[in-house]
Amino acid sequence: MPSLKYWRAANQALEHIMADDPGRVLLGQDVAVPGGPYGITRNLLKLFGPERVRDTPISEAAIMGAATGAAMAGLKPIVEIMFFDFITLALDQLVNNAAKVRFYHADPKPPMPLIVHTLYGGRAGMGAQHSQALEAWLAHVPGLNVAFPSTPGDVYEVLRTAAQLTDPTVVISAISLLTTSDNVRRDLHAASSFGKANFLRRGKSATVVTYGPAARVAAAALQDLDVDLIDLRWLSPWDMQTVLTSVKETNKVVIVHDAVRQSGFGAEVAASIAEHAIWHLDAPIRRVAGAFSAIPSRASDWEPMLPSARQVHEVVQGVITW
Amino acid sequence: MTTSPQLVTGPPPDAPSVDDLTLKRLEASDTPGLLNAMQVIRAIEGALAWASLEQMYTGPLHVSLGQEAVAVGLMTALNADDVVFSNHRGHGHALARGVPPIDVLREILTGVGGSMHLFFREHGFLGTNGIVGDNAAIALGPAWAAQVTGKDTVTCVIVGDGAMGTGVVYEAFNLAALWRLPVVFCCEHNGYAEMTPTDVHLATSPVARAEAFGLVALRADGTDVHDVADKAATAVAHARDGQPAFLEARTYRFGGHYVGDPGAYRAKGEDETWRQTYDPIETLRHKMQMQKPQLENVQRGLDQRARDVVRWLLAVA
After folding, report:
1. Is the pLDDT of residue A250 over 80?
2. Same-domain pairing of A75 and A163
3. φ and ψ at residue A254, rounded to 5 degrees
4. What does the pLDDT average to over A244-267?
């Protein structure tokens, strides 16, 4: 169980995926010679050659389209979209084509083994166009899998799992987590963890549901409280069962994420709990989420807009003592 | 789905024979075969339009009446293991590619995808597409796959002049030229982007744009099936050799953007003039020195057979 930084765990996962399967190809801006702006694709060109690892122009739509077509023709593309915000430029191809090709086919449906990896720049002072958490847009699209891991071990496992799936899968990594370290179990890459949440802590007083960089904030904030802290890891499909089971035991729930509260993924979690477990609740469902605003560049300006440890602690404490 | 009264009374009619409508492999030198293919496409799309206007079928239908020479000429240049991508006006492309008419019609009339989402993988036909321009980028994928795996297959994608307004087409041109992908972009320039004429939506010609991106850029008379076949063969040969190509085929869309579109945006008499001047089937009949009644007689028989098939499919669906 080596200790790896997040970026290195992602890099290792990509290397192992490509080594295992000669059909895997990688394309994106600055992925080959530069190795990615944060090292996530480092060494892959050297290991797998220019046929399989390609730098592209700044053409997100054509890259996503070409990857979709390549998957239809039997290749297994990995697309790196440098910042999550830039996925807007590729969304037409991802949503209207990649997510729907299998739908048109009768069984046995051809696989669409496309992996998209992208970087969420919130909490890193990247400015309004490099800081958005748009995961709810993607989780809203039938035909896509969506994951937002928060630890080196999870990103390794999620990527290895994604490589075994037949629907296109988007994996979001947070820039703010890239240099965090964790032990990575390289044997844990079976698709059995697909769609499964992970308990960061076990407790009885409340359930806290989170994912992505907010999971790290929540974990640090809640060390003195007796809570079930659930890191969803996967947002589509998401582990509703684990959440409901926990809520039925704790009877209280708080949802924490960086994305803006309005129509954020937490709204889906809250609605599902209300639908399936409302009579088990002893307090209102609370959400701690991003302010409904674009994200400013300066730390002193963005910090109050994203969930902080103090805020998370306060809200969870409030729910526990409700 | 709206059903006409004649369909709900009595048992479904027997399955009609589709032998007359089934296209043999198209060869550029087989002029009667090319004529037959164009007539079959016209019959099948005419039957679809008929079913739609009679409200036996609801849902959008973009037919390619008047554009048959492009589909037929282009497909003569492709091998069985090449890959074809089409657009929202793609019934003719699938038929000319050799997909059995019954399969095309079944998918259009009763399939999950419908007209704009026709996929026939066993024929290398990887899709019509309802998003204008998108397949230009998707077509790069199989071309790239061929390059990576060392196959000498070509990918051909058909776009309209309307797609020349989308940015992704130019991203695709650049990538194709940059990576020397074995791809042919065929621009079926039919005079209208949906309901907007070319002079209102394009500042420069499609072929000039392709040339500027470093593609082998060719033009064909899209009303002349032989000219399309000839230029398509050149384009495909270049692409197979690692020189991606672009072929602009000027053609003329008869009727509106979709079946039922009254075409009020068109100049008075334009559609009639186009039908009289630019009909690719008439053009070929002249070349073949065939008598008009003979051609019309064949067309009537195909039209009837196509309607029988459409009626039967809707009845048994």
Report:
1. yes
2. yes
3. -130, 135
4. 98
Is any Cβ of chain B less than 8 angstroms from the Cβ of A62?
Answer: yes
Strands A234-236 and A145-147: antiparallel
pLDDT tens for B232-266 read: 999 999 999 999 999 999 999 999 999 999 999 99
pLDDT confidence of A123, banded at 50, 70, 90?
Answer: very high
> How is residue B63 written in tokens?
């037919």
| Chain B residues near residue A74 by CB distance under 8 angstroms | 145, 149
What is the pLDDT confidence band of residue A190, given thresholds at 50, 70 and 90? low
- Return left, alpha or beta for A35; rule: phi > 0 is left, psi -120 to 50 is alpha, else beta: left
Asked if residue A284 and residue A159 are part of one domain, the reply reads no
Query: Is B311 buried (19+), middle (13-18) or exposed (0-12) by CB count in 10 A?
Result: buried
Nearest residue to B47 (alpha-carbon basis) of B94, B109, B103, B2 = B109
Predicted local distance difference test score (pLDDT) of residue B6: 44
**Residue A303, pLDDT above cutoff 70:** yes
Strand partners, A231: A198, A210
Cα–Cα distance, A320 to A313 (Å, whole number): 10
Interface contact A62-B168, CB threshold 8 A: yes
* Strands across the sheet containing A206-210: A198-201, A227-231, A206-210, A253-260, A286-290
Number of domains in chain B: 1
Contact in structure between B245 and B220 (CB atoms under 8 Å): no
Predicted confidence band of residue B9 (pLDDT cuts 50, 70, 90): very low
Q: Does A56 touch chain B (CB under 8 A)?
A: yes
Rounded CA separation B169/A62 (Å): 8
The reply to whether A123 and A266 lie within a common domain is no
pLDDT single digits (tens) B198-215: 999 999 999 999 999 999
> How far does B233 lie from chain A, in Å, by closest CA?
23
Residue B13 lies in a domain: no
Coil, strand, or helix at residue A116? strand
CA-CA-CA-CA dihedral for A230, A233, A235, A236, to nearest 10? -120
CA distance A23 to chain B (A): 9
φ/ψ bin of A62: left (φ > 0), alpha (ψ from -120 to 50), beta (otherwise): alpha
For residue B127, the chain A residues in CB contact (below 8 A) are 101, 104
Q: Tell me, what CATH number does B234's domain have?
A: 3.40.50.970
